[in-house]
Design a protein that fits this description.
It contains 35 helices and no strands. By secondary structure, it is mainly α. Helix 14 packs antiparallel against helix 15 and helix 28 packs across helix 29.
Length: 605
C-alpha cells in the first residue's frame, strides 16, 4: 500500500478526472468523424469495402436512408457483409421477406451472421426445417449466436443430445445465456438421479457449477443466484453471500431474498430486512412472508399482516397460511379458519393440517378428518400422525396404526413411539425395538425408557460384584435409562437411582431419586426415604415417605405407621396403617392390617 501511495504522490500514475473523460469522448468522436470522411471519400472513388463499412457505420447510427444506398452499392459489387447488413436494415424497416432475400444471398456466399439471421427469420415464420438448416450453417462456421439459436431450436424439438452439444459450443465461445442453460440442464439431470447418485452424477453437478460460475462471471444474474444456492448448501456461506449480492444488485429478487436469510442466520436482522424489503417490493412472496414473520416476532401485528397480504397477492400461499397463524395467535379463530381454508384449497398441506386441528378443537371431528387426510396425502407427516390419534380415539386401532406407521416412516418421533408400543402389545419385540430405537434416537424420553425396559428384560443377571474388582461397564439398557432420565423421565430416574444404589453409589442414587421425587414421582420419594433411613437420616426420610404416602404409595404409608409405632405415637400409627391397608398392594395391606390391630389393642388396653 505504501508503494502505491508513493506512486500516486509522485505523479507517475495520473488519476482520471471528469475533464479527462470528457476529453477522451471528444477525441473518440473526432476520430470517428475523420474515419467516416475517409470512408466516404473512398466510397465515392468506387472502393467497395469502403461502401460496405460506411453503410455499416451509418446503420449503427440509425441513418437508414444514408446507409441503404451505400449498402446496396456494395452488395451489387458482391460484398457479402453488405448484403447481410442490408438485410438487417430492411428487417428493421419492416420488410422481412426482402431482408430474408438479401440474407440468403449473403449466407450462400458464406456469411455466418447472415445464415444466423436467416435461420431466425424462418424460426419466426414457423418453418423449423429451414430454420435448422441455416442455423446449422452458422453454427458450423463458429458463429456463437447461431450455435445458441440452433441449440434452442433442438431443445424445443426434444433433441436433448443435439441441443446440449450446440449449447456447449456456444457456452465455450462465451455466450453467457448458453452457459446458464447448459448448467441448468446438467443440474436437472443430476437432480433426477439424486436418489441413486453415482460418480457420473457428481461430475455432472460439478460441471453444472462451473458453467454457472462462468455465466455469473459474465453478469448473468440468475446464474449468480444458482451458484449462490449451491455454495450455501455446501456451507461456503461467505462466497454464497457474494454471489447473492451480485445477483441482487442486478435486480434478481430471489437473490435479494436469499441474501436476507443468509444475513438473518448470521445475526444481522436489520440488513436482512433491507434486502427482504427490496425483494418484496419487486414481487417476491417469500421475502414478503419473511418480513411479515419479522414484524410478528416484534409484536407489530398490523405490519406483519400487511406483508402477509403482500405475499398472498404475489401468489405465495404461505401468505394466507401465515395470516391464519397470526389470527389464531390473537384468538381470532373465525378469521384464522378463513385464511387456513384459502391456503388449504390452494393445496397448502400445513394449512390443511392447521384447519383440521382448528375444526377438531371446535368439536367438528367430521369436518376435520377430510382435511387431515388431504394434508397427509400431500405429504404432511404431522397430519398423518394426527389421523392416527383421531382413529385411536375412536378405538380403530388398525387404522390408527396404519397412519402412525406412515408418519413414523417419514421420521415422526411420537408416531414411531406409538408403533413401537403397539408392536410390544402384539408381542413382536424385534419390530417394537426397531421403532423404539427410531423414536428414542429422535429425542423421545418415553421411547428411550421403553427401549431400555425391552433390553433390560433380555439382560442376563449381573455377576455379584466383589470388593476390589473393577465396576462393570454400563450396558446399553443403562445408557438408554440414563438418556431418558436426563430428559426428565421420572420412572427412568427412579430406575437409574436403583442401578446406582445396586452399585453402592449412594450419592448418585440419592440425586436421581430426589430429581424424580421433586418432579412428583411417589416411587422416587419412597426410595429416597429408604436411602436416607439407611444412612441414619430418618427425620428427612419421614418427610419423603409422607409425600409418597399422600400420593398413594402403600409401602410408604406402612413405613410411616412403623415409625410412629416405634415412637409411641399409636393413634398416628393407626391412621397410617389404615391408609396402607386401603392403598395396598395385598401383602402390604396384610402387614398393615396386623399392625393396625396391634396398635388398636395397645390403645384400648
Amino acid at each position: 500500500m505504501g508503494d502505491m501511495a508513493n506512486l500516486f504522490e509522485t505523479g507517475r500514475f495520473a488519476q482520471p478526472s471528469d475533464r479527462d473523460e470528457a476529453a477522451d469522448e471528444a477525441q473518440e468522436a473526432a476520430d470517428e468523424a475523420a474515419e467516416e470522411v475517409r470512408r466516404r471519400l473512398a466510397a465515392e472513388a468506387g472502393d467497395v469495402e469502403a461502401m460496405s463499412v460506411l453503410g455499416a457505420m451509418l446503420l449503427r447510427r440509425g441513418d437508414f436512408d444514408g446507409a441503404e444506398s451505400h449498402l446496396r452499392a456494395a452488395t451489387a459489387a458482391g460484398d457479402r457483409a453488405a448484403a447481410n447488413n442490408l438485410g438487417v436494415l430492411l428487417h428493421q424497416r419492416g420488410y422481412a421477406d426482402e431482408a430474408a432475400g438479401w440474407w440468403r444471398i449473403a449466407a450462400v456466399a458464406g456469411s455466418a451472421p447472415a445464415a444466423h439471421a436467416l435461420g431466425r427469420h424462418f424460426r419466426e415464420r414457423g418453418d423449423e426445417p429451414a430454420a435448422e438448416y441455416w442455423l446449422r450453417q452458422a453454427a458450423e462456421q463458429g458463429h456463437v449466436l447461431g450455435a445458441y439459436a440452433l441449440a434452442d431450436l433442438l431443445e424445443h424439438r426434444g433433441d436433448e443430445t443435439g441441443a446440449r452439444r450446440w449449447m456447449r459450443a456456444a457456452a465455450e465461445r462465451g455466450h453467457r445465456e448458453a452457459a446458464y442453460r447448459l448448467a441448468r440442464t446438467l443440474d436437472r439431470n443430476a437432480g433426477h438421479r439424486r436418489d441413486g447418485r453415482d460418480e457420473g452424477d457428481t461430475e455432472a453437478a460439478d460441471e453444472a457449477e462451473q458453467w454457472y460460475r462462468q455465466a455469473a462471471a459474465r453478469g448473468h444474474r440468475r446464474a449468480a443466484l444458482h451458484l449462490g444456492t449451491i455454495l450455501e448448501k455446501r456451507g461456503e456461506l461467505k462466497e454464497a453471500g457474494r454471489w447473492y449480492l451480485t445477483s441482487a444488485k442486478d435486480g434478481e429478487a430471489r437473490a435479494a431474498c436469499a441474501l436476507g436469510f443468509l444475513l438473518r442466520d448470521a445475526g444481522d436482522t436489520e440488513s436482512a430486512a433491507v434486502w427482504w424489503l427490496r425483494a418484496a417490493q419487486d414481487g417476491d412472496g417469500n421475502a414478503a412472508n419473511a418480513l411479515g414473520a419479522l414484524h410478528a416476532e416484534r409484536g407489530e401485528t398490523q405490519t406483519a399482516e400487511r406483508w402477509y397480504r403482500a405475499a398472498m397477492d404475489a401468489g405465495d400461499d404461505n401468505g394466507a397460511y401465515n395470516l391464519g397463524l397470526l389470527c389464531a395467535d390473537q384468538g381470532r379463530t373465525t378469521q384464522a379458519e378463513q385464511w387456513y381454508r384459502r391456503a388449504a384449497y390452494a393445496g397448502h398441506r400445513e394449512a390443511s393440517n392447521a384447519l383440521a386441528i382448528l375444526l377438531l378443537r371446535s368439536g367438528d371431528e367430521t369436518g376435520a378428518e377430510p382435511w387431515f387426510s388431504k394434508a397427509a396425502e400431500a405429504g404432511s407427516v404431522d397430519a398423518a400422525f394426527n389421523l392416527g390419534i383421531l382413529h385411536a380415539g375412536r378405538g380403530e386401532e388398525r387404522a390408527a396404526l396404519r397412519w402412525y406407521e406412515r408418519a413414523a416412516s417419514a421420521g415422526h418421533t411420537e408416531a414411531a413411539l406409538q408403533v413401537g408400543m403397539a408392536r410390544l402389545r402384539d408381542g413382536d419385540e424385534r419390530e417394537a425395538e426397531r421403532f423404539l430405537r427410531c423414536a428414542a434416537g429422535g429425542g423421545s424420553a418415553e421411547a428411550a425408557y421403553r427401549l431400555a425396559t425391552v433390553l433390560d428384560a433380555r439382560r442376563p443377571p449381573a455377576p455379584e460384584h466383589k470388593l476390589g474388582e473393577p465396576a462393570h461397564e454400563k450396558s446399553e439398557c443403562e445408557e438408554w435409562y440414563e438418556r431418558a432420565a436426563s430428559q426428565g423421565h421420572r420412572r427412568a430416574q427412579v430406575r437409574v437411582g436403583m442401578m446406582a444404589a445396586a452399585r453402592g453409589d449412594v450419592v448418585e442414587a440419592a440425586r436421581w431419586y430426589r430429581e424424580a421425587a421433586e418432579a412428583g414421582s411417589r416411587n422416587g420419594a419412597f426410595n429416597l426415604g429408604l436411602l436416607l433411613a439407611r444412612e441414619g437420616s430418618e427425620p428427612e426420610a419421614v418427610v419423603w415417605w409422607r409425600r409418597a404416602a399422600d400420593a398413594g404409595h402403600g409401602r410408604a404409608a406402612l413405613r410411616l405407621a412403623l415409625v410412629c409405632a416405634r415412637r409411641g405415637e399409636l393413634a398416628e400409627g393407626q391412621r397410617w396403617a389404615d391408609l396402607a391397608v386401603s392403598l395396598g398392594p395385598r401383602e402390604v395391606g396384610e402387614r398393615a392390617a396386623r399392625l393396625r390391630d396391634a396398635l388398636r389393642q395397645e390403645l384400648s388396653a
